[in-house]
Inverse folding.
């Protein structure tokens, strides 16, 4: 993701608005290659990068379980930060980032990027326009072909809950408008474990919301590599007056040959997302909407993983919310 966002800044229309000045990666060769490609300076330590120059903004995309330290370093340096989802994989880390940002009046925008994904933008407008009525239920899944976890060096340090359902449950929170109250989840391990990757092949979750709605969610890391796209995203929301059903998997085009079927990515919302962040940076806006959503997201996903481990539904205490 760091490379995707860096290239969007350096090569796309965003280059008229922002300049990529530095790349930081603890993998020195990886970072140096990207920096050389895009004409930026290369660092292997976030602290050294922050100390070396006056950065106007940072985009932070490191593995799910390790967001806390670099995020706290950016906050301490007073640099507005676009921090990848999930905010953190523990409530303690999420609260630490939230508290540090509040104390420093620092902007930390959690990158729930699907809020800029065109079909979800339209769905949000339909809800706000009253076309759907009150939300009753959500049925959604986001899954990947197994080559994705198999090519990810840190797959054993995360799950499809953190990597994939973080998107889905944030969309449900954003579109459904209600915090989660309870979650019952099951996780299945086996196929990835056999390949030395200690994480779930699949997670199923049933979530109850404070407004009485419920959500059913699935995230698998075991779809076949032969699918035309490695990403399968379906999202259906039912309301008292209407519904919407989103399927981004086809991407509006299918290209087929005798030995090939692909659905190349057409929907791309990277620039829209980065423009929204830069609007806040340039105008000095420090709001905590996405940071608070990130905290809500982490609380639900921590409860979801506890439910898998303990085998029973887990309540998410309302008083735990700050
Ligand atoms: N918003 C989205 O659509 C989306 C999509 C994919 C991934 N993500 C999120 O982005 C984050 C990164 O995922 P990825 O797929 O890009 O992973 P990746 O493995 O491709 O890249 C992570 C990079 O971070 C580097 N790194 C690790 N620790 C570091 C540190 N302390 N300082 C600097 N560099 C460090 C690694 O060497 C690696 O190059 C994850 O939190 C993931 O959930 C978001």
């Amino acid at each position: 993701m760091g490379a995707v966002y860096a290239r969007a800044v350096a090569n796309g229309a965003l280059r008229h608005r922002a300049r990529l000045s530095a790349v930081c990666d603890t993998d020195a060769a990886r970072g140096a290659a990207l920096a050389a490609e895009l004409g930026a300076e290369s660092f292997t330590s976030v602290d050294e990068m922050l100390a070396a120059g006056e950065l106007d903004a940072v985009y932070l995309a490191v593995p799910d379980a390790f967001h806390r330290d670099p995020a706290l370093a950016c906050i301490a340096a007073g640099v507005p930060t676009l921090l990848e989802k999930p905010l953190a994989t523990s409530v303690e880390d999420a609260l630490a980032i939230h508290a540090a940002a509040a104390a420093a009046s620092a902007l930390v925008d959690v990158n729930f990027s699907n809020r800029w994904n065109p079909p979800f933008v339209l769905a949000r407008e339909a809800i706000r326009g009253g076309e759907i009525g009150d939300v009753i239920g959500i049925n959604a899944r986001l899954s990947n072909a197994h080559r994705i976890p198999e090519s990810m060096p840190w797959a054993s340090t995360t799950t499809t809950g953190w990597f994939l359902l973080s998107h889905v449950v944030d969309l449900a929170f954003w579109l459904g408008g209600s915090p989660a109250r309870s979650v019952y989840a099951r996780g299945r391990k086996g196929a990835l474990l056999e390949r030395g990757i200690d994480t779930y092949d699949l997670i199923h979750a049933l979530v109850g919301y404070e407004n009485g709605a419920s959500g059913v969610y699935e995230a698998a890391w075991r779809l076949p590599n032969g699918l035309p796209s490695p990403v399968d995203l379906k999202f259906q929301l039912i309301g008292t007056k209407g519904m919407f059903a989103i399927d981004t998997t086809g991407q509006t085009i299918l290209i087929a040959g005798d030995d090939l079927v692909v659905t190349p990515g057409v929907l791309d919302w990277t620039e829209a997302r980065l423009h929204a962040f830069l609007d806040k940076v340039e105008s000095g806006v420090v709001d905590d909407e996405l940071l608070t959503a990130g905290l809500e997201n982490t609380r639900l996903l921590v409860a979801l993983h506890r439910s898998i481990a303990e085998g029973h539904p887990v309540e998410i205490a309302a008083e735990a919310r700050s």
Observations:
- Residues 1-2, 24-27, 30, 46, 61-64, 66, 70, 84-85, 111, 113, 152, 163 surround nicotinamide-adenine-dinucleotide (CB under 6 Å).
